[in-house]
Amino acid sequence: MVSSSNNVKKAFYLLLAAAILAVSACSKGEDAFYDPGPKSEDNQKTDYEPQTPLDEAGQSILIIATLHQTEAGEYYLQVDDKTRVYPANFKDLCHIEPDCPCRIVGEAVIMDRQVNDLGYYGLLDWFDFIEKGPVLSECGEGKDGVDVLADWMTSLEDGFLTLHFQTWWGYEPRRHELRLVTGTNPEDPYELLLVHNANRDPKSFQADALVCYDLQDVLPRPNDPENTTVTLKWTNDAGQIQSRRFPYAGRY
């Protein structure tokens, strides 16, 4: 998932606030911090609308993608179902062995298209891993409200559900637990419930963050990927039940 170049600066400052749940071991050294950030005016949209695929080289883009590793040890980013980026400087930025596949957020410069239409060569200016949340078969604790924002960062791609969410935090924030629960609707295995436990974090201010969930081995493989949808339900900060639908085709 990419942000258009015209929106890079606006989205970049929003992503700084999203660093609460990001692992920053492979960024350019910035400390993770939180900041209230703007609240989406389009939060009531119910259906996921994909962004226009990346179709030209030479762009500097904000990117949310799946990090994969080939059998030969080469890393690449799966941006959407048709686009891969091969970041030449990945190992220069990241000195740990990531557990692939995983989701990352960052800024990339696309250099040139690779041979045989496999994707683009590119460079990463910076990136962070997006924390992976648990997928459970029962709710457990958690009755706190949360707002899932309807923007380009909220997506279901390559088997990963990535959520850009907003909630209340304390000035010395406690760890928030966001669990994804399956089996809540016996008639629809593709219906999921997002449960939020703020662990009594004081409601000092609102801020955004990112979390992702790997659904590849959790949901049934769709027999008809073009017509299969996942329904996500959650309770917002006003106590209202919200829902959003996402196309689902599994891992690309």
Explained architecture:
Helix content is 6%, strand content 39%. With 252 residues, it is mainly beta. It has two domains: 2-130, NigD-like N-terminal OB domain (OB fold (Dihydrolipoamide Acetyltransferase, E2P)); 135-247, Sandwich (Immunoglobulin-like). It has a five-stranded mixed barrel. A five-stranded mixed sheet has the order 8-12-13-15-16, with no helix packed on it. Strands 9, 10, 11 and 14 form a four-stranded antiparallel sheet that branches. A hairpin with a 6-residue loop joins strand 6 and strand 7 (120-130). The longest helix is centred in the N-terminal third of the chain and has 10 residues, at 8-17. The protein starts with a strand and ends in a 5-residue tail after the last strand. Residues 2-53 have low confidence and may be disordered.
CATH T-level topology of the largest domain: OB fold (Dihydrolipoamide Acetyltransferase, E2P)
Assembly state (oligomeric) = single chain
Query: Could you state the CATH homologous superfamily of the largest domain?
Result: NigD-like N-terminal OB domain
Order of helices and strands: EHEEEEHEEEEEEEEEEE
Summarize the structure.
With 252 residues, this protein is mainly beta.
Supply database-style keywords.
252 residues, five-stranded mixed β-sheet, Immunoglobulin-like, mainly beta, 39% strand, five-stranded mixed β-barrel, disordered N terminus, OB fold (Dihydrolipoamide Acetyltransferase, E2P), single chain
